[in-house]
Here is the input.
Amino acid sequence: MESLYNFLDKNAYYGLLVIILIVWAGMFMYVSNLSRKVKKLTQQNVLK
Here is the structure.
């Protein structure tokens, strides 16, 4: 585990990249889920 800390200490950009990718993946999943819900409501004629 210490070697991982040493690697991230020397290459901080990789840690930042991982965090950014996690945020983007979360945003994609949220928008995808929201789109699915809106599609379901429009099929039920709740939204026009």
